[in-house]
Amino acid sequence: MNVTEQSGESHIDIPESHQLPGPRPVGEGTFWEGRSGLIMPAILTAFSLYLLIGVLNMDVGNAAFPGPRFFPTILGIAGLLVAVALTIQTIKYPMHPENESGRSWKFHSDYVSLAWAIGGFFAFAVLLPYLGWVLAGSLLFWTMTRAFGSKRPGFDVLVSLMMSSVVYLAFDVGLGLNLPSGLLGGGF
Amino acid sequence: MDILSLLMEGFAGALTPMNLLWVIVGCLLGTAVGVMPGLGSSMAVALLLPMTFALDPTAAFIMFSGVYFGGLFGDSTMAILMNTPGQASAIASTFEGHRMALNGRAPQALATAAIGAFIGGIVSSFIVVFLAPTLAELSTAFGPAEYFALALFAFVATSSVVSDSVFKGLASLIFGLGIATIGIDSVTGIERFTLGAPQLFDGISLVTVTVAILALGEVFYIAARARRDKANLETRSAGRPWLTGTEFKEAAPAWARGTIIGLPFGVIPVGGSEVPTFLAYSTERALDKRRKDPQFGDKGAIRGLAAPEAAGNATTGMAMGALLALGLPVSATAAIMLAAFRQYGIQPGPLLFDRNPELVWALLASFFIAMIVLLFINLPFAQLWAKLLLIPNHYLYSGIALFCGLGIYATSGAVFDLLMLLGIGVVALIMRRYGYPLAPLMIGMVLGPLAETSLRDALLSSVGDFSILVSSPITWSLYAVLAIFIAVSVITAIRGRRKHLTSQLETIDA
């Protein structure tokens, strides 16, 4: 029996996922159940340490008292304190997100979709100067349609090419923003 | 009347055919983005921000006001029809508004919302026009210590009010403040936290952070849920989009009360219009209980929708005034507008009225024009806007991702900024996943430099004596209000927790 604590509503029950079909959630029954939120205090700690290490390595010369180190030092220390508070909060009150899909999942978030979305954007960012706007843009658009579970990948290629071409025509040719033409360069 | 003639000049500036076109384009685009489920007016502004750089400043800001107010109208349309508020400020409208829609009164609900938003917006625009120059004059009395107090107020208010946990709000705030310190220190010229990368010397652009937090992170978040949550979208009913005389009389006092509640929140930095909309809603609810025939509940009460709509737009209008006159952004959207001003080399604040009067007055005039345009495109056609939902989700969000990339590449022209956008977007995704509020990050990012430089200026001039921070009557009153504010929120939090515990005990008994 555990009390689920989430968005003000609480009920004592075995979490619903136990009755639902589908794979068992990863981490179920372990310490990590409902505590994956610890990633946020971890990120905050890393960020605060980055600030504090940066402060220590900063070459300030002989600036007068509230110099460039003053404000970031406060932030770094406050960040560490808040991270500790968040860690305690997360350990004390695990969070169980709502699941309305009628089945259970290995993870609450859809990591396949996220891989398509984030990977697609990464590829777009890196390849943009080489492929040019039209091709890189359609690559981004297409991977995003995959991420959102479109069922017609072939047709989507056409939609993607059309979308990024329209954007190119409207913003580069029309409004005069400077977008790279890349592989298809020179032609238009 | 001096102000009136200035405003008339503003209208003359704003009513050129080109500028009129930009208002209408802005209103249409803003409404279109606002109507999309999960996308709110601040996202509309963030997405369209880079696009406006192709325009001249006046045209750009006129378009902005259209986008912004349009987003608000679109938000409430969806809140009513689909129960999907685009952002927190539209949540209060869903309660009674969606009930009205379920009860077959969707068109009347939409009309109530549109008229309420119109009234709130127009009244606040009038007040801004007459108050802003005075406010601007008043703010010349502000020194570094006063500005620091004001920034501190904004930080505490946004990070404690908006989120369920104060620590989550503070964490978000610290990210924002920290990101803002990256780059060359404006006081001493020393580089900070750049790891020697020349791309970071100017710091991380507010536009990149905004688009990452409000648009790309949102797209990632929706992608992570797209195949998990069953979408449940249904539009209902058509019919007369007009209110009968009785309905109008019913709603009128609520519009007025909502507007009055909303106005003061525009100049108090509490992170936008969530607080006033909820306050307006609960006021109407409390008043309703005293009536002989309570309306709240199953069928949906017209007043419970009218008041928050008016309050929301009244706050928004006033917030624009505070931004122009004080240079103080009180909400995430105002923060983006501030970024836009800076992109053009314009610093909002007391001097703006002297230096760029044509711009300010044209912008203020465009508020009125935007309101009227929006009333026209929303009152009769709200049902048509709902048709936008027929665009399949996978194309909609792919298009938004494409626009994120376009906007950032167009402003920076560098792959580095695209990767920065991606990185911050992923952090924003994690923050959304675990219920961290994003508004404090934005406010921290925008007001961080102001807070830091004014704190250091104050301390430098007093040679390290901290008492200078509380040395003037203005700072006293600001800290006094802040103390009251903290006390009130602590008391409500304790009461809420007690209530929460009792309800938990009751469930255990049952």
Automatic annotation (TrEMBL), chain A:
Residues 1-26 are annotated as: Disordered. Keywords: Membrane, Transmembrane, Transmembrane helix. The chain crosses the membrane at residues 38-58, 70-91, 111-142, 154-171. The keyword Transmembrane applies. Residues 39-180 form the DUF1468 domain. It comes from the Bacteria. This is Hypothetical membrane protein. It comes from Corynebacterium glutamicum (strain ATCC 13032 / DSM 20300 / JCM 1318 / BCRC 11384 / CCUG 27702 / LMG 3730 / NBRC 12168 / NCIMB 10025 / NRRL B-2784 / 534). The lineage of its organism: Bacteria, Bacillati, Actinomycetota, Actinomycetes, Mycobacteriales.
